[in-house]
């Protein structure tokens, strides 16, 4: 597991091969390009886009939950692909002969999916070669309303007992996950770049694929991250979706060479499995 300033992220991420991020704190996974045993129990899967390395194991996830007599999971998908995902599952039902029950739900930027009272999922727009989106994990807490601050505790208690609402909701983005995207979609949205914790795809690390080609393919290059370092103001940054061209040790070395020290200190790297 990778520690992002108190929030742990695991799973598997290798560009073009498979992506599945597990976030145990929220009991949610992002993408299902590989069906990890630890993710079978996740009732909610967020799909960033429909490339095979991000969606290809959905039928296996559905089937494994059925075999274990679990309730159907919910798969949140970008608007416009829900019918095709349903068609994919219908084809597998015909081939498999099983129920393969699943809830496929379209969720668009600007909409909110309530996971629990204090946690909501909110999509944001990304730019890839197909329809895509990232996801905010938005936490809601309460704090004492400004007009009651400074009052004695007993007086605040009495107000509460009298039915006065003395607290106001405070929303914060605990985590943002981009999925595959060009970096400009991130930099144009201050909520993404400034999230408390950000999981950002960074596929290419050397000149075999330069910045221009990375952008053409709808991906991020480490040189772009270094250039935009000042935009990443959160507590932790996780780079994932590294191309298989780069060995883990080489990617870490290049990251250390390219990123400014202040950002490097807050940055982690995910290459392959992180359990």
From TrEMBL:
Domain (Metallo-beta-lactamase): residue spans on this chain: 43-241
Pfam families (UniProt xref): Lactamase_B_2
InterPro entries: Metallo-B-lactamas, RibonucZ/Hydroxyglut_hydro
PANTHER family reported in the protein's UniProt record: TRNASE Z TRZ1
Protein name according to UniProt: Ribonuclease Z
